[in-house]
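Help needed: design a sequence for this.
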């Protein structure tokens, strides 16, 4: 199994983990996000900083947007860490959306990777975390999942809808929480969206399209 040079891959993942840990601290201002979820996420970031196993994986074309996004981040060290780790992160897509015409545009410009948890760089059975990329001017149709979920918007603005609420613009720096099986959707504007996400509770099942 091939691995990247730890002088770049491992150190950059450690830098990325440090930045994400700081983002988790800022998210405590959102009272919707359970404190226990954020506590577990902090522990997960600490483990992520010591990740050493980086199997060779194909880089999905949708993930290549990250280079341009990272170069425009106000936080230059975070941008550099994202650029350095782009090719070693396990980018993938939700299999439940494949073959669904309403998700075709979304899948053509969107991807995510797991940092901690199933399929991630380090194992964790309490909180799963990762990065999510979505191209500009695209709809992510309504969907839901049994896990609790928190998004931290690192770059871009999206119109966010949660079941029972009116759509609202969520800019960079915003946090969004989704309760279990609460339908939600989003639409990007004229720039791509980059988010850090957490999931806890009933982990495992992928999101499914909302009926």
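Sure. Designed sequence:
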């Amino acid at each position: 199994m091939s691995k990247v040079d730890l002088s770049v891959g491992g150190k950059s993942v450690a830098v990325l983990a440090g930045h994400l840990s700081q983002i988790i601290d800022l998210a405590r201002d959102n009272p919707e996000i359970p404190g226990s979820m954020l506590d577990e996420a902090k522990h997960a970031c600490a483990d992520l900083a010591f990740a050493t196993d980086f199997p060779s994986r194909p880089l999905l074309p949708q993930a290549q947007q990250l280079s341009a996004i990272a170069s425009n981040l106000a936080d230059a060290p975070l941008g550099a860490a994202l650029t350095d780790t782009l090719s070693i992160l396990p980018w993938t897509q939700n299999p439940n959306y494949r073959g669904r015409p309403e998700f075709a545009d979304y899948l053509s410009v969107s991807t995510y990777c797991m940092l901690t948890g199933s399929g991630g760089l380090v194992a964790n059975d309490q909180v799963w975390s990762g990065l999510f990329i979505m191209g500009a001017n695209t709809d992510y149709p309504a969907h839901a999942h049994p896990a609790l979920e928190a998004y931290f918007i690192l770059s871009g603005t999206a119109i966010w809808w949660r079941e029972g609420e009116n759509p609202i613009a969520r800019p960079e720096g915003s946090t969004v929480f989704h309760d279990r099986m609460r339908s939600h959707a989003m639409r990007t504007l004229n720039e791509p969206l980059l988010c850090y996400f957490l999931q806890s509770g009933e982990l495992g099942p992928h999101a499914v399209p909302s009926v």
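Residues 4 and 54 are 6 Å apart (CA to CA).
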